[in-house]
Predict the 3D structure of the following.
Amino acid sequence: MASFCFSMTSNLMICFSLLVLVSIGSANANLSKDYYYSSCPKLFETVKCEVQSAISKETRMGASLLRLFFHDCFVNGCDGSILLDDTSSFTGEKTANPNKNSARGFEVIDKIKSAVEKVCPGAVSCADILTITARDSVEILGGPTWDVKLGRRDARTASKSAANNDIPAPTSSLNQLISRFNALGLSTKDLVALSGGHTIGQARCTTFRAHIYNDSNIDTSFARTRQSGCPKTSGSGDNNLAPLDLATPTSFDNHYFKNLVDSKGLLHSDQQLFNGGSTDSIVHEYSLYPSSFSSDFVTAMIKMGDISPLTGSNGEIRKQCRSVN
Ligand code: HEM
Ligand SMILES: *[C@@H]1O[C@H](CO)[C@@H](O)[C@H](O)[C@H]1NC(C)=O
Ligand SMILES: *[C@@H]1O[C@H](CO)[C@@H](O)[C@H](O)[C@H]1NC(C)=O
């Protein structure tokens, strides 16, 4: 299927923006929604068109792009560090455990960056492109939309060890999840709302094997279903995929939370959010009220996007997202 990214979306865009003009308080005075108003007026339509085209080719890509933003922001802030390739003299974050054989969508980011460079050369950071891309992915898959704050600059460094330490593992307990998020200024409610990102996308057998074979807080028939695609012994089946949301894996909705209430979370860490602890009530609320989830998700995404941005003369505007200038 051919796809063309021109400004044919402008009528649509006007409708959307009328619906969603929410005023957003700015926790970080250096980020603003109008940051590229004059330096790159076509930015939003350019990014959206490329994201739409990537998701039309492969629905899962929307999930992969959302996750890239999360993995970028959790490691020394939203600074595009995850996008840097390893070289003989530089070790980046792509080979850290949470990303290795798992983080995907880098080619799509490259494509978006070159489309943006064509309309406004040298103006827009890769960190901001990731931010817009995550927002557009959620919207295109049926979730809420919102105004993103922009003005981040790109890191000249990356940290494999910070990626290993700061991105939570699927084996995490509730307390570990809460403290990881709290360390970055995100509340327990933000943790639960952001975990709703698992309403889309896939996980590899190796990340959920222990939960489906060894945990007792899992629906028996669901565990059996997942076991059929994920052999007990590690090895050849490690990369077999299963949807994080068994009900509607390509729609951004509140089904993830209904699954948790039914003990059908795929990851150990997912089910920790509804396991008799302090977050049960939030999960229960989101499972009943999709609009409550949507609005808390938006709030939390904006907060996550505020984590330690590089501004002013810090960092740079990368020419290519995979390497420093
Ligand atoms: C709360 C702690 C979290 C843990 C422990 C966690 C862990 C994981 C794991 C293990 C996978 C599967 C990776 C693989 O098998 O390759 C995954 C996938 C995913 N995660 Fe998370 N995650 C967390 C939070 C988040 C957040 C906050 C978001 C976004 C808001 C997010 C979005 C996603 C998405 C969309 C996927 C599917 C990606 C794809 O299909 O390519 N996760 N996560
Ligand atoms: C389940 O737990 C046992 C005992 O701790 C361990 O030996 C085994 O490797 C675990 N199995 C899986 C699939 O994680
Ligand atoms: C904005 O950026 C400048 C220059 O980098 C910095 O000194 C200042 O603290 C930043 N302000 C906020 C609110 O982050």
Q: What stands out?
A: The chain has 14 helices and two strands. Residues 28-30, 311-312, 314 surround 2-acetamido-2-deoxy-beta-D-glucopyranose (ligand 3) (CB under 6 Å).
